[in-house]
Amino acid sequence: MAAMADVRTAHTSELSPAELAAIRSLLDDAFEGDFSDDDWDHTVGGMHALVHEDGELVGHGSLVQRRLLHAGRALRTGYVEAVAVRADRRRRGVASAVMEALERVLRDGCYELGALGAADEAVPLYEGRGWRQWQGPTSVLAPAGIERTAEEDGGIYVLPYVAVDLDGELVCDWRPGDAW
Ligand SMILES: CC(C)(COP(=O)(O)OP(=O)(O)OC[C@H]1O[C@@H](n2cnc3c(N)ncnc32)[C@H](O)[C@@H]1OP(=O)(O)O)[C@@H](O)C(=O)NCCC(=O)NCCS
Question: Does the pTM exceed 0.85?
Answer without folding.
Answer: yes
